[in-house]
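Quick one, T. Sequence first:
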Amino acid sequence: MAAASALTPRRSGGPTGRLAANLARLDGPGREAGIDLARGLAVIGMFAAHLLETTAFDWRDPGTWTDVVNGRSSILFATLAGVSLALVTGGTHPFEGTRMMSARIRIALRAGCIWFLGIVLVVLETPVLVILPAYAILFLLALPLLRAGVTWLFGTAAAIAVAMPFAVFAIDSWGGWDRPLGQTVAHALGWHYPFLLWAAFVIAGIGIGRLAFSRPLTAVLLAGAGAVLAAFGYGVIGRWSLLAPADSLWGVTLSSTAHSSGMGEAIGSGGFAIAVIGLCALLCATPLRWLVLPLRAVGAMPLTAYTAQLVAWAVLQPPPGAYGSELASFRALEPFLPLTIATILVCTLWTLLVGRGPLEWLIARIASTGPRETAR
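Structure tokens:
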């Protein structure tokens, strides 16, 4: 993109010049600090969901508050994918004509790379449900919607959140999911993150990305709207689900439990994601954005951070032993803090001293083989 290249700082010679150039890239006008921060929080939240033992969330018991990462971190990650799609296709002024077509082809190439990487991570057989295959499919599903208006995007996201839990329930009722073929299909589609429903989060994210969300007033409105949706999803629809038997149609499709694919979760956790994005945009409109720079660095290279965690897990995984499962035996090592601190440190140093994350750079290079964008 011609505009982006014009904003890219020139690197002067030596380490000092490289550091200045990379810092300008991370905090320059072509980068949304609030989105990087939210994405960094999502990545660390997924680490926590994988690596920590949590109990059901109860706002009256601070000991249960770590449960906030379950389900919500991955939904925040998916919502931010939609924001990123909007930003790379023009932000508040969507591309048109051949420029949008070129952007769509490059996004499709990125989706193919992400899907392949996801399958590689599945083959590692860590006891984690890998989100990347679903992430790639969601990219492809979003392609026809990149020229849609904001009202239409939010309306469509809401309709999907209400209707698709019933479709997911019907598909989940298929008896073949536990067979080898069914398990292969589930991994290939990332069906543990059912794209029919999760499209709501990506579409809502595109809608956010079409707004001037970094403006304080818009960020406040996003945070407030997200809080209202979260309260309605968890507090109203979630309570309705408790009135029905847990395994009944209504008990499942209205559920607000993490990873239930229920309407309560879709609206509640979707609202939570919107609120987090608004709050991160607000924080990064202040000098406090420098305080959270390490988290922003993680958010600037999320694919590398996510992949590195699973590769490290595969290398360090002990046998089940007395713990009964590989997941329990790995958690017994108490790996969350060491892996998180190492991730934040490495991502910060890499972003400042090298620049773009290695996987982000590689996929961008592959996507660049597609047609180049031309000015409108």
